[in-house]
Amino acid sequence: MIYDGGTMQTLRLFADVARCHSFSEAARLHGVTQSAASQRISQLEKRLGATLFDRSVRPLELTQAGRVFLEGCQSLIERYDELEHRVAGLGEAEAGTVRVAAIYSAGIELLEQVRERFEADHPRINVQISYDHPEAVHEAVREMDCDMGIVSYPQRWRGVGVIPLRDEAMAVVCSPTHPLAGKRGVVEVAELAGREMVAFDAALPVGRRIRRYLRDNDVSVRVVSSFDNLDTIKNVVAVTGAFAILPRRTVVRETEARALRARLLAPRLVRPVGIIYRQRHRQGAAFSSAARLFAESLTRHAGPDGDAPEVVTRVEGDAPSPGPSVEGGGSNGSPSSQRSGSGAGKVGGKVAGETQLAGGQA
Fold first, then answer.
1. Per-residue pLDDT tens for 320-362?
2. For a tag site, which of 9, 202, 224, 226 has the least CB within 10 Å?
3. In angstroms, rounded to a whole number, what is the distance separating the alpha carbons of residues 316 and 125?
4. Long-range pairs for 128-132 at CB < 8 Å and ≥24 separation?
5. CA 86, CA 167: separation in Å to the nearest integer?
6. Could you report the per-residue pLDDT of 235-244, keeping only the tens digit for each?
């Protein structure tokens, strides 16, 4: 097989169909019709003499041959891109500005590392990342005030496409002196019963998911404070005897510095994170060439969570609210310094004191 430009485009299309579990979503990303995308994959399957997708189920799933081929494709695409970037550096390079809107808990440190690496490889492309509440990220994408957004619990919103990015393993986070800090391995959810907890605000999707998870496992904890700000939660946990349930990936720096301890939950709980983008009404690529390059860099360097196994317990969230807000697309909100009233803690729910949290009661 000769890997010309057309073949590489087909391999990229195949990888995007596998990631999106949808021919239509992948077709929009590539600026082609769903029929054209399906025909190109069928031609690829004919050339390989193997069926890559199980088309009898929805959403689409890879066959065993498809999984093997995807693993090789990802490696091949990455090597081809690296070669292309090196060669492009000898001549006229891609240029432009990529605007990204992200929720705060998408991982500011991780995104900055990806941005710096990307800009070093593409010196003529400037990446601007802004952070905001999930509703504001969705609005920015819908109004095309940015090229893409990064949210958790992405839904199928009208006019907005989704590219799955990663599933983040959730962990019990506590101070080094907490009774759970010395545990080896996972923390059974039953061990949290009756303990003090610093929680995400119940108005946030991640807060509702965690409450649902506890309720489904018949565990009641004592909420001593709740916040819409992940950094505030970490700071409170570090100086109190309470624990929190946070994405493990967001506390790597603190655990390496031994300021916090993190233990995975059993049964497993994950938070899905995805890239959202405005779908075009007219035929055309969803991203500019510069934005496409950065989206590919995100999926490569900020993609699957190394903590999350292939089979996990995913907590189904509450039904999304009507309207354009990113219900189910959110996380933990912004720092209090960014928005009037944001980040203000609610001690013991709405008033000072402790509140029993049994699932949705908060």
1. 333 333 333 333 333 333 333 334 343 333 323 334 444 332 3
2. 9
3. 38
4. 128/97, 128/98, 128/99, 128/100, 129/100, 129/101, 129/102, 130/99, 130/100, 130/101, 130/102, 131/101, 131/102, 131/103, 131/104, 131/106, 131/334, 131/338, 132/101, 132/102, 132/103, 132/104, 132/334, 132/338
5. 31
6. 999 999 999 9
